[in-house]
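Reviewers of the previous submission asked for a worked example of the structure-prediction workflow described in the proposal, so we include one complete record here. The input consisted solely of the amino acid sequence. No template or homolog information was supplied to the procedure at any stage.
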Amino acid sequence: MQILIVDYGSQYTLVIGRTLRELGVRSIVLPPQKVDMWLKENTPKAVILSGSNWSVHNDGAPGFPESLDITGEKYFILGICYGMQLLAYKLGGIVERPLAHREYGPAEVKLDITHSLFNGVPERTEVWASHGDTVSKLPKGFNSIGKSGGYAAMTDKNGRVLGIQFHPEVHHTKEGKKILKNFLALA
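From that input alone, the workflow returned the following structure tokens.
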């Protein structure tokens, strides 16, 4: 199984790759500008969009590589932090920077444990958050599958395009490895 990790510059991107290796899965980490060339000769089973220190509202903020299928038709997609915000923003949702909602450090989320992404995860769990932007309105065709003040997780109606606002790859997210394992099981 090959997982493509699109590296938007998060300090945790390499940790995603390491965690996937620990789960027995091969992945490749590429910056957005190298993804199109790689996709010409490869079709991943799934794509993970990393976090970033960018805001989707910043001039010059990285977007999606041109050939990346964000519909979920070709492969499953998991947006982490900035990855979720970018998905929401580009698909017609609203991403805001509410000053009162900056989350950094431990946070508690309430998850929709009926969704396969959260199999075996408690409904309330501690996660690691590191973001100033938050998705305040989901794109059309998406549902919330997690809350933490704002939307902590979302999925499209087909369950193939997913986003989580927190970082499952770091050990501070108690059930993070299980969440990533569940994502791999979907793919």
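The chain has a mean pLDDT of 92. We consider this example representative of the routine output the project will generate in years two and three.
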